[in-house]
Amino acid sequence: MSRFRRRPHDVPGLNLASMPDLIFTVLFFFMIVTHMRDVKPRVRYAVPQGTEIEKAGRKSGVVYLFIGKPVDAEGRVVSDETRIQLNDRYVSVSQIGEAVAEARAAMSDDDRQHMVVSIRADRDTEMGIINDVKQELRKAGALNINYSATNKVKKDKKFY
Hints:
The chain is α/β, with parallel strands linked by helices.
C-alpha cells in the first residue's frame, strides 16, 4: 500500500488577466447608454395625464419650457406665482421669442431644422398662460411643440 501515496492536490490559481478588459467594457457600455439630464427644472410641475401618449424620438434639438411654481435648491415652493423656465433661466412671456432665438442659434443646422419645444406645464396652470406662450412661440417661428404628460391609468369597468 505504500506504493500508492496520495500527493497533495494543488488548486490552480484564478487567471485574472482578462478582468480589466471586462471592467472597461462594462464601464464604456454604461457611459454610452446613460442619459444625463441637460436642464434642471427650477419650477415645480406635475404633468397632466393623458390617454393617447406617444414617446418622442429625438433628444437633440429640443428646447425645454417648464411652467409652474418656482422652487429653491431644496425643492420647496418659494412663491404661488406661476413662472416660466426656458432651458436654464426664467423668462417672461414677452422674452420667450428672443430666448428661443438664442437657443436656435446655439444648435447645429440639422437640429435647427427639426427643433422641438417641449412644454412641461403643471396640471394646475391656467390655460391663458399656455395660450400666451403658444402665441409667442408662433411669433418666434417655433411651430413644432410637444406637451409632456403621463399615462392615465385606465380602470376596468366591471359589469355585474
